Amino acid sequence: MADETNSLLDFYDLDSEKELEVLYNNSLEWKKKQQILMNSTDQFFLIVIAIIIFFMQCGFAFLEAGSVRSKNTVNILIKNMLDTFIGGIAYWAIGWGLAYGAGGNSFCGGSQFFNYQLSYELYPKWFFQFVFAATAATIVSGAIAERCQFVAYLAYSILITGWMYPIVSHWAWDGAGWLAQTGFYKDFAGSGVVHLMGGMCAVVGCYFIGPRMGRFSKIGEQLDMPGHSVPLAGLGGFILIFGFFAFNGGSQGSMSQEGDGGVVALAIVNTLLGASTGGLAVLFINKFMFKRPWSFLMSLNGALTGMVALCAGCNYFEPWAALIVGGLAGVGFMIVHFVMLRLMLDDPLDAVAVHGGGGLVGLFSVPWFMSVGLETGERGIFWDGHQSFPWLVFGYNIAGAISIMAWSALWSALLFGSLSMLKMLRVSTDDEFKGMDLIKHGESAYPAAAWVEYQYSKDYPAAQDMNCSGALPAVMSGHNHAVITTSGVTEDKSREAFNNPMEMVPTTEKMVKPVSSIFMSVTAIQDGFGGGGLDMDARQEDVAAFSSRQAESEHDNKGFQVRGDDSKLL
After folding, report:
1. N or C: which end of the chain has fewer CB within 10 A?
2. 3-state SS string over 95-113?
3. Do residues 195 and 143 touch, judged by C-beta distance below 8 A?
4. Closest by Cα among 96, 197, 53 to 139
5. What is the pLDDT of residues 407-438, one digit of tens each?
6. Which of 212, 300, 313, 217 is nearest to 266 (CA)?
7. DSSP state for residue 45 in the 8-state scheme
């Protein structure tokens, strides 16, 4: 306090010219500190957002793992992990330089390869752009899952993150890119740059690698081949929904300028609304138009498609417009989904429908619905359709979509076609039949030996003190307490209290049980005299067969013996 007082007194002792000089210098120092704080805020914002987007790799891993059969779980997990490892090296070596390196041209960047002479101040942007590149590569891994060779995976992962994606991102997002220079191409968070590019690579990969064995009949009929875990796929889907909020909102790129917070919040809210109508549209179309059950996985994919479509214009849309775009994305997903099936293109994750279909809907929706923060004459066709600006946006978005699709299809066809000719694209029939987890990786996602434990054995000492076949609780002991009645019905007393509502609600039992007994008696009489019951000899044969299977099972399980070969196709 004393030092501040002395400084103030010294200031007043100066003449007017010196006082102005001191005030000017202090103002410059304050502006410098303010600029440092603003830059640090933007850098911290990008780093945190990029870390959240990076977590989407976990979502892709779980979604893909749950959507494939259990025999290929480890295989798809390691591919998702290597998207990060391989993509990081490829983007560091050439990806960043091609995308944003100074001294380039309208086609690609021209410096800062291997991060040479790249300022540390740009590392937050580097990391942010890298997680977008990794996302583009992951799209393809799901589309050709369960039959792609490991070498082929390494090849396309390097090509996408190191060459294909950086060029496209330069076109659209670097100031020197030919699409960015027009000022009319609008793709805020990558409906075209990331998702359409990845979706196009995926459809080409599906074409060259062919469908999984048993996916279609000889006459082209679709045969169901569900993944092994809906909960895993659901968890992955929810993680992706969480990550999309950062994916779209963080594309603002800064948080220090006036209005940044509002744009980020608008993008996040619109992303949520797009997911909502996208998921609901698919849910209702699937139920009422195609007369199918209420599908969780289809609805989840519809929600993801809605978020993909919102990438392009989530900063320009009013919330009501985001609802419409999300619904259109759901319709687009259904169209691409069934077109893929009609063409016998096997995509276990529906990656082409989600990312390709959603990307197209997003790019084509921007020129119609953009309005927020735009001046009169620069809004969408519904507002300023009499002006040239929105039509130019429409034209350049179409041109951008065609260019991205052509670029992606060209290099994907060269890569996958070459690998197919060299017999390096698809695994052998035997490997596909048995699954790649044990053959290629020596690891099983669900090893049978892990489920055999000593405490569940009849020989375990604690079993002597328990009224069950082992230390396993009665409710987990299968049918070890089951008995077969003369009517051939299995009765499991150990589970009765947990499945019988009469036991769970005693009051209800007193009222309902007498009525139930009378009803069962009448039913038994009708079965006996009406000819509707089973023949007694047939029932006795069923009892004998069941008893034989039960004895065989108990014999095989005794002493921790496990039946079955873990490599067999179930």
Report:
1. N
2. HHHHHHCCCCCCCCCCCCH
3. no
4. 197
5. 999 999 999 999 999 999 999 999 999 999 99
6. 313
7. H
